[in-house]
Design goal:
The protein is an alpha+beta fold and 75 residues long. The chain has one domain. Helix content is 20%, strand content 39%. Strands 1-2-3-4 form a 4-stranded antiparallel beta sheet, covered by helices on one side. A hairpin with a 2-residue loop joins strand 1 and strand 2. The model has no long low-confidence stretch (mean pLDDT 87).
Length: 75
């Protein structure tokens, strides 16, 4: 599946999807960050069978909203 980018709270994120035997893995990385957040989306309830990609994107956007933000640092 092709990668997806979205913006949330002024931060642009890139998501890369990987299919596994049990569902999907999403690696979500801020555009300017080195670390990725990894989320698993098991097959089953919650996926629109007509729009799996849309379901995954919605799940990723919801997950990012719950990631704790680091406080800005002073230099």
């Amino acid at each position: 599946m092709d990668p997806h980018s979205f913006e949330q709270d002024g931060v642009v994120y890139e998501v890369r999807f990987e299919r596994t035997p049990d569902g999907w893995i999403a690696r979500i990385r801020p555009e300017d960050g080195a670390e990725a957040h990894v989320f698993a989306f098991p097959d089953g309830i919650g996926f629109d069978p007509e729009d799996v990609r849309g379901s995954l994107i919605a799940g990723c956007e919801a997950a990012v909203a719950r990631i704790p933000r680091q406080a800005p640092t002073r230099h």
